[in-house]
Automatic annotation (TrEMBL), chain A:
<dbReference type="InterPro" id="IPR036188">
    <property type="entry name" value="FAD/NAD-bd_sf"/>
</dbReference>
<dbReference type="InterPro" id="IPR017224">
    <property type="entry name" value="Opine_Oxase_asu/HCN_bsu"/>
</dbReference>
<protein>
    <submittedName>
        <fullName>FAD-dependent oxidoreductase</fullName>
    </submittedName>
</protein>
<dbReference type="InterPro" id="IPR023753">
    <property type="entry name" value="FAD/NAD-binding_dom"/>
</dbReference>
<dbReference type="InterPro" id="IPR041854">
    <property type="entry name" value="BFD-like_2Fe2S-bd_dom_sf"/>
</dbReference>
<dbReference type="GO" id="GO:0016491">
    <property type="term" value="F:oxidoreductase activity"/>
</dbReference>
<dbReference type="InterPro" id="IPR007419">
    <property type="entry name" value="BFD-like_2Fe2S-bd_dom"/>
</dbReference>
<dbReference type="Pfam" id="PF07992">
    <property type="entry name" value="Pyr_redox_2"/>
</dbReference>
<keyword id="KW-0560">Oxidoreductase</keyword>
TrEMBL record, chain B:
<dbReference type="Pfam" id="PF01266">
    <property type="entry name" value="DAO"/>
</dbReference>
<dbReference type="GO" id="GO:0016491">
    <property type="term" value="F:oxidoreductase activity"/>
</dbReference>
<keyword id="KW-0560">Oxidoreductase</keyword>
<dbReference type="InterPro" id="IPR006076">
    <property type="entry name" value="FAD-dep_OxRdtase"/>
</dbReference>
<protein>
    <submittedName>
        <fullName>FAD-binding oxidoreductase</fullName>
    </submittedName>
</protein>
<dbReference type="InterPro" id="IPR036188">
    <property type="entry name" value="FAD/NAD-bd_sf"/>
</dbReference>
<dbReference type="GO" id="GO:0005737">
    <property type="term" value="C:cytoplasm"/>
</dbReference>
<feature type="domain" description="FAD dependent oxidoreductase">
    <location>
        <begin position="6"/>
        <end position="349"/>
    </location>
</feature>
Length: 460, 372
């Protein structure tokens, strides 16, 4: 049986571990040179730092994932630095590109563990050099041992905001402000549910307290005004506090992010249906709790199947592999599946509380000013998208998100809407006066990520 | 519920929307039924070429008339749909292809189409960015390109303003003719009747014709299209080749749009997608024409569904089985440029009973498959 696993983060590692244990040697594909996923991304060879410095509380988990990954490599067809840019579920083939070389991988079953990326809300100045996502700020620190600036402000919401701020302060950067757009009251309401998270919840409290103790400016319930700067980059961040007072802090870099969204392009190309999850405020591919999709041979695990975090990803990866094995007629241990299912269910309750504690600030996305750059690839401002939704547009109003893309090029550029899509959908829905789920989802098209035109081969 | 009107149009591509506009402008009560959104298939996903050069001679009178409408599109539809007169440069990569270019000069002359041969001595001087495989070209200065995503919606919008009733998400599931009127029922259960029906349903036009006893040999045609990230703007003309296995153009914002070969589709959904090996082959052929695009990142690819006839020209004209039925479908991958004129011509057929454009070559019974 030919099995392909895409992604070598926590979900992919635990999936491959189960497959190998069952005597299957899958093709295992990852974009990064050395696996680990975004969360446990490893520094390049030669940059030696200990796991505790790199991953903090997660060091033990990270080390375990890395050790398992390294032990599995010789037992599988390991293909690092490889992009899966297309999938044809009808033919059961994947198309890959690695260092300029095209290849086709045939599979009978595939587990897609494609991870997540930051969700961004455009703020005036968000495209300046020196502004990165929270995830990118963290990866710079983790894999390159460098920060995005010396004096850094962090803006957004979610656990990552506090974690990254803590990591930067610990690494010696001056953190000038941690600005959470979620109010303290909102978090407090979710507190009972967050208790379910146990350690994860405790870690969150620890980071906040740690930052406060060091006198770092912390504000909750803020409204971003702008990230100011000049040709050389960022000079300051401005915001309005919960009471409406304006503030400003000088800085040379800013990390921003409002939670995560699944990197589900491959599931989309595999023709897995999607549903809008109102709690996550994300479109997520449809799968059952065991990781099985309605598309024959396609299984999903990890954040690419809906945001759950690294711990959930490990469990879901193992679970999806067991599902695949069971579907293929292998005998699997029922006790193990029950245990995994129980852990997934308990994590799901915590996750829902987390989403309620740090909700995607729809109101901020909907109120992006007309002259703020919304789609940076295509240079489209929020006002231009709003105009396309109105009846006086020459094409008639864009009443659906793919029509808006057609008419205005929103989400049509290099990132294919991965960066601007969530905010653009809210802007369009607000202008049309409807719920974001009602305007649909940006259609995915190959390639999953850009692929270069090859050099000419024929001699003159 | 039954709705009466003067003319029913099935299919909201460029041609159907143009017909709705032209009919409404002459005071006709017209209803257009579109299964999805207007311009969703062939009219909206094609390459965007607005080209006369290289066409089957039978199409040239229509193309010429359409070119005149394209020049006035802003007045007609409220937007020029980014129509730009860049010229179209058709390239030859060997002696045989060059002979083909030379032969077409006579056709162009006969139909009054301005065309200039760029021979071996000057092709690389005039276009220094062309690759060494190119040996000659022929340049049509009046041709160009437009944004296909805008044409049909803008025509539909103008048609609405002129009084046409454009119904989107109205899939026709049953056709009937009672001797004097057509009865169309949609999947939502609505019924529409009119004495005249225009079949402008692209690939699905074959199904409509079949419903009235005149089946035709039509196949789905899926263009395999790609676009790159923006790069320095340097490719001014719209480029094609003899044989048509690759075509590319660059828009001033920098993106290079290229196509070649065919993707896959399931018209019953409808669903279509480019094929990976075809996309890679199109890139290889394109970079041979213009080596400087090597390394540019392809950011998106797409396809759609058009209808292809065996002789690669559409069916246009009255039905041979049913009075009041007129066809215009099966544009075989090059209907985008023709769309605006097709609407005008169909309006003349319906209201005046005649048109100056010769349509003999496009008659539906040319395949000898009509049952009646």
């Amino acid at each position: 049986m030919k099995v392909a696993v895409v992604g070598a983060g926590p979900a992919g590692v635990r999936a491959v571990e189960r497959l190998v244990a069952a005597g299957i040697s899958p093709v295992w594909i990852d974009e990064a040179p050395d696996g680990g996923g975004r969360i446990y991304q490893r520094p390049p060879a030669g940059l030696a730092r200990d796991a505790r410095t790199l991953y903090g509380f997660e060091a033990k988990r990270a080390t375990s994932v890395h050790e398992t990954l390294d032990a599995l490599k010789p037992k599988v067809d390991w293909r690092p630095e490889t992009l899966v840019w297309h999938i044809r579920p009808e033919a059961r083939t994947l198309n890959t590109l690695s260092r300029g070389r095209q290849a086709e991988v045939a599979y009978d079953a595939a587990i897609l563990c494609t991870g997540a990326m930051d969700r961004v809300i455009p703020v005036p100045g968000w495209t300046r050099p020196g502004v990165t996502t929270l995830g990118a700020a963290q990866i710079a620190l983790k894999t390159q041992g460098c920060g995005i600036g010396r004096r850094v402000a962090f803006l957004g919401t979610g656990p990552l905001l506090w974690l990254v701020a803590h990591q930067y302060a610990k690494a010696g950067a001056e953190v000038v402000a941690v600005l959470d757009t979620t109010s303290f009251a909102t978090k407090l309401r979710a507190a009972p549910g967050l208790m379910l998270g146990g350690m994860t919840f405790a870690k969150g409290l620890y980071y906040t307290a740690w930052l406060r103790r060091r006198g770092i400016h912390i504000a909750e319930g803020v409204t971003p005004i702008a990230i100011d700067g000049d040709d050389n980059g960022v000079t300051a961040i401005a915001w309005r506090d919960a009471a409406g007072r304006e503030h400003r802090a000088e800085c040379d870099a800013a990390g921003i992010g409002w939670g995560l969204k699944p990197e589900a392009q491959l599931a989309d190309l595999a023709r897995v249906p999607f549903r809008h999850d109102p709690v996550q405020a994300n479109w997520v591919p449809v799968r059952d709790e065991a990781g099985r999709t309605p598309v024959a041979g396609i299984y999903l695990a990890g954040d690419g199947a809906g945001i759950g975090g690294a711990e959930v990803a490990e469990i879901a990866g193992a679970r999806a592999a067991l599902t695949l094995l069971a579907d293929a007629g292998h005998r699997i241990d029922p006790i193990e599946t029950v245990t995994l299912d129980r852990r997934l269910a308990s994590q799901a309750r915590f996750r829902a509380a987390l989403e309620r504690a740090f909700p995607f600030p729809t109101h901020l996305a909907r109120s992006i000013a007309d002259d703020t750059l919304l789609c940076r690839c295509e240079g489209l401002r929020a006002g231009e998208l709003r105009a396309a939704a109105r009846a006086e547009a020459a094409t008639g109003p864009a009443t659906e998100v793919n029509r808006a893309k057609s008419f205005t090029r929103v989400g049509m550029g290099r990132c294919q809407g991965r960066v601007c899509g969530a905010a653009a959908a809210e802007v369009l829905a607000a202008e049309l006066g409807c719920d974001v789920a009602a305007i649909g989802r940006l259609r995915g098209q190959p390639p999953v990520k850009p692929i270069p035109i090859p050099a000419p081969v024929s001699a003159p | 519920m039954t709705t009466d009107c003067d003319v029913l149009i099935q299919g909201g591509g460029g041609a159907g929307c143009s017909a709705a506009l032209h009919l409404a402008q002459r005071g006709v009560h017209v209803i257009l039924l579109e299964r999805g959104l207007v311009g969703s298939q062939a009219s909206g996903v094609n390459y965007g070429g607005v080209r006369q050069q290289g066409r089957n001679p039978a199409e040239l009178p229509i193309a010429k008339r359409s070119r005149e409408l394209w020049g006035r599109l802003k007045d007609i539809a409220g937007t020029d749909a980014e129509f730009t007169v860049t010229g179209h440069l058709k390239l030859a990569r060997n002696d045989e292809e060059e002979a083909d270019l030379v032969a077409y000069l006579d056709v162009a002359k006969q139909y009054d189409l301005p065309l200039r041969l760029v021979g071996r001595n000057s092709i690389h001087q005039e276009y220094p960015w062309l690759g060494p495989k190119v040996v000659a070209g022929s340049f049509a200065p009046e041709d160009g390109a437009a944004n296909p995503r805008l044409l049909s919606p803008a025509l539909a919008n103008a048609a609405r303003a002129a009084g046409a009733d454009i119904r989107e998400h109205a899939e026709v599931v049953a056709h009937a003719h009672d001797g004097t009127r057509f009865h169309l029922r949609t999947s939502a259960g609505e019924e529409f009747t009119a004495p005249i029906l225009l079949n402008m349903a692209g690939f699905w036009g074959g199904k409509v014709a079949e419903a009235f006893g005149e089946p035709v040999p039509i196949e789905p045609l899926n263009p395999n299209m790609l676009v790159t990230e923006p790069i320095r703007y340097f490719i001014e003309p719209n480029l094609g080749v003899v044989g048509g296995n690759v075509y590319l153009r660059q828009i001033p914002r920098g993106n290079v749009i290229l196509g070649g070969g065919h993707g896959e589709s399931d018209p019953s959904v409808p669903w279509s997608r480019p094929l990976p090996d075809v996309s890679v082959r199109a890139m290889e052929l394109a970079v041979e024409l213009v080596p400087a695009i090597a390394g540019a990142q392809v950011i998106r690819s797409w396809s759609g569904i058009d209808g292809r006839m065996p002789d690669r020209i559409p069916v246009i004209g009255p039905s041979r089985t049913t009075p009041g039925l007129f066809h215009a479908f099966g544009f075989s991958g090059h209907g985008f440029q023709l769309g605006p004129a097709i609407g005008a011509i169909m309006t003349e057929l319906v209201l005046d009973g005649r048109t100056d454009i010769p349509l003999e070559a496009f008659r539906i019974d040319r395949f000898g498959t009509t049952a009646a």
